[in-house]
Fold:
Amino acid sequence: MLDLSQFQTIDLPIHTLVMLVFYFVLGAYASFSAIFYYHWKTYGSDTKVTLYTLILYFSITIPLLIVMGIMALII
Structure:
């Protein structure tokens, strides 16, 4: 049987944990955005719709990331 009392606890401050999660979300956003941009540019049939979609996507998500970054820095 595994004795859990032999493991040491990790003393990780909440600020460090929040920043790590924020960096992970930022990396996932960058990867998703690159894939999203590529697919809309490559497979989009109407250039106006593609342009409007990309502008709307980035105009909504970038302010959200800025708010998340500010909140992560405040904690």
